[in-house]
Amino acid sequence: MARLFDAYIIADWTAAEGKKLGENSVWIGVAKRDVRFRLYTETHNVATRAEGEALIRTLLADHAKRGDRVLLGFDFSFGYPVGTAARLGLKDTPAWSAVWKFVASNVVDKPDNTNNRYQVAAKMNRLMTDDAWPMWGAPAKQTQRWLTATKPPQGTGDIPEFRATERAVKKGKLQPKSNWQMHGAGAVGGQTLVGIPMVRRLMEHLGPSAAVWPFGTGWRALDTADVEPLSVVVAEVWPSMWPTTVAEGEFKDQSQVRTTAEAFALMDERGELSKAFAPPKGTDDALVAQVQDEEGWILGV
Q: Which end of the chain is more exposed for a tag (fewer CB within 10 A), N or C?
């Protein structure tokens, strides 16, 4: 089977405020082939999300000039648990697109990395429950009526804590975080709020040459005919899924983007990547609709 992609770009995002390099900053890993078709990787570290977004656009433009197809992965959630759009009072369909539009219109993320993610989380809580849940977690100076520092005791009531994809991951040894968690070790909620607007801008920039999986492609196996019209397929990834050995002189985040890019490249080489885009065997139609219309899915789960 022919490879689906020519290059694999993995971005480890951050919600941190202030410019920062090294650990817990923006890392971008690229796996591609040289003139002899040998796979090699390179990593990039930038101090702000704005620099990361600009670098990704540059990398994609360079690959487009060569006629390459690129798999582009980001390590934050592309959707929220089923029912979120309705609880926010959003009427447009599909639900994932309505949520993306809402988040993009509310999040302010400045070039120096300062952002209003905690205020947006509080607004989402106010709209969804008029209480300090389901989103939770904030530094003491950012807490308010609709956002607490720690997980509220009432939990999330009838609002799912996890998406279906996190529940699938939890069947194994890995323990993913809920994207309702905004602060604390491993929290992905902040990255999701600042990440979604960036991906939305990127898709508007790329136009019909790009698609977001599974929202724009359907939750199904993708073959060569599916990706041939595209230059970029964007997917949600979770680098912690892949075994990583930190090489001497590497940061952990740096090694994770390198390892993840290599993992997808090798899957593609073996002809295994196509089926990774498909639902697990036995998935019913209701879950397929839930995933591709609102929640999204982690590639490789």
A: N
pLDDT digits (tens, 9 = 90+) for 88-122: 999 999 999 999 999 999 999 999 999 999 999 99
Tens-place pLDDT, residues 108-163? 999 999 999 999 999 999 999 999 999 999 999 999 999 999 998 766 568 999 99
192-to-189, 200, 252, 276, 296 alpha-carbon distances in Å: 5, 12, 20, 23, 12
CA distances from 262 to 28, 30, 33, 93, 265 (A): 13, 8, 11, 36, 5
Residue 97 CA to residue 121 CA, distance in Å, equals: 18
Q: Using the 8-state DSSP alphabet, how is residue 136 labeled?
A: B
Amino acid at 112: D
What does the block give as tokens for 273? 């990547």
pTM over 0.85: yes
